[in-house]
Prior knowledge:
alpha/beta; Phosphorylase Kinase, domain 1; Transferase(Phosphotransferase), domain 1; Rossmann fold; five-stranded parallel sheet; 18 strands; 14% strand
Amino acid sequence: MDRQAIASKSELEHILLDEGAEPKALPLSLLEHITSSFSADKEIGDGGFARVYKGVLDNGTVAVKKLFGTVDLDEKKFSEEVRCLMKAKHKNIVRFLGYCSDTQGEMVDCEGKLVLADVRKRLLCFEYLPKGSLDKQITGRMTWHIFSQASIYLLFSDQGLKYLKYQTNFLFSRFVDASCGLEWSKRYQIISGICDGLYYLHQNHIVHLDLKPANILLHDNMMPKIADFGLSRCFDEKQSQTITSNMLGTIGYLAPEFYARRQITFKLDIYSLGMVIIEILTGEKGYADIDNVLERWRSRLDKSQEDKQLVQVRVCTEIAIECTDFNPAKRPDAHHIIDRLGATRNADEFATETEANSSSSVPKLAAVSPGPTICPENAMDNELKKSTEELFSMTDQIQCFSSMPDDSSNVQLDTGIRETTSDVEEALIIGRTEEKQKIVATLSESITPEVTILPIYGFGGIGKTTLAQLVFNDSQFAGYSRVWVYVSQNFDLNKIGNSIISQLSEESHVTEKQMIHNHLRKLLAGKKILIVLDDVWEKNPDTLKSLKAMLRLGADSMVKIIVTTRDEAIAREICHTVEPYKLETLTDKFCWKILKQKTAFKNRVDKKQLKHIGREIATKCGGVALAAQSLGYTLNGKTSDEWESVRDNYIWTVPTPEDPSSKNHEVQASLLLSYHHMPECLKMCFSYCAIFPKGHNIVKCDLIHQWIALGFIEPSTIFDTMQLGEKYVTQLLGMSFLQYSKTPSVSFYIIRLLLLFNLTYVNSHSLHIL
Length: 770
């Protein structure tokens, strides 16, 4: 360290000990030193704006948040952020210790040449809380449920006993106390602390904008501290404040009015607070019955304080309900919430009054849903709703589901749902011939030596992977060695390097970075190679620069690289010598062709009657192949009335977390309509798939056996349960709800877009389609 860093280190250690000390500007060299140059082993988390590292001092530990270079934050905005953080000094707010805004000269890639450029580095330093975040502490029941299933499946080899035990544990777990885990006094302490912290922020004109359990950290004594002000804004609420279109938040915690008006008010945080309290009370998101909350807690409370604690449970539940009212004007402010909680802390006489006033008039928590509410059509819908709520809530907590042994399973929650391959049946692809020819020509005509990188970008479901598959298999590259790498959100340079090595040689599992580079240098040298990097999410310019450097290792080589991504900024960051290719939507004509293909339209006797309806449905698909494919399969064999029902359904106009005018809206609407038209038993089977973690390789026969064991499939007079299970799998594949993996005869993956759709609508919004 230089002298400035040494002096600043002593100053930071003093700030860490003295809670009254003011945050200071910190040199980049110090933050690099205490995080071992931001090494991977010091990384403790990341989000949409930054990556967080553990910084080690002589007298303690700090958390260093390194903002991504892609964050749209000029010096004025960064100063505003620091000003907000410096204002926030409260026992229930994570302590802000210091900041860094430093410019360094770095060699960067500019139009194929390395040039020296000034690169701004921005970092924030906070106290480190080893207990972690609240979401890890309030999920007892769901974790037990998954553990019981995994244990049973692995421990019992006899099929009959296995399925009997499996079903018994599943049914029993439905009655396990939802509030297991932290005792009530701790949960009440956490709720009170969060409310105190939020009240303090609002008093200081700070709106958090992303309040959720993952952004609430816990001290050793379980004191909650609100963290992550990456979205926070300081303002006077009397002023009109409009959120920019790229504002991030978390679906399920953002208030419904945000989607309609995108305006900042303190009531946005109040809604999020209500959703957080619901999770603390129940371990679940959007729990629907206050009476069950009370009953589940009654058996677990300290008998000597049961009356007072039951009142606290009831009052906290009532507060949660009021906070999540659809009408922002009816939500209480933080001061009112603090007063109500304060009245329950010691006043035992409050119990009698509260019970009398609220026993017959407490509303149901179903009103928290931030969109139109679906009314169940029958008893099966009620059961399905309960099951899907339970199953989807598990998805957020489980780190690994091992009930189906598969070495390819990925236990990381942020990896891609669907692994892609280079395989494609070109004869079935409609509407992408012209785009394929353009990309093939661009790659072939490039006169740049060594490496050509062509990014393809566009929103999810538009067909980027399909287009890359078409180019990959084109005869123009017959003389090339070809490599297909599925990247996903879990970006790992070593994994990418290993994948390339294993496809170009018999080597695999090279662990050392230098060894990976040595292998690539030999394998790429003097070769003609086509590489596809599919589904790239990584935004960090430094990481992308390292990726490009790794791909340029081969001397005298001719390497053509296609990168697919949803993000234009990533496409422009990674492009090397050619302009990124924006994949546009299909025409309505092509969507109609896809619909006709999937509905077996030419074999229908009522073609003339359906033609006009079908064209209108094709228009509603918004030019997205995935939407047309899903609806086409769903409409196969349906009556003209059912076609009209799909065409005229109001779901096409229901706002989504995305801009309703965006093409993602059409994709989600089409998938939701397909879901609605499923038989009830198929809905149950598909809902069950949500328990698998992202990236898990689902083995088909094992999944069908589990459906049978859980009673989701009952034999018919024609088919036995196994045959019906096969039919269900085929239907889900046809509707694009599931996607084949590399070995279609054995396993498949749940696609990312669909899981998002289900978590957003089936679970959180429970839309009713008439």
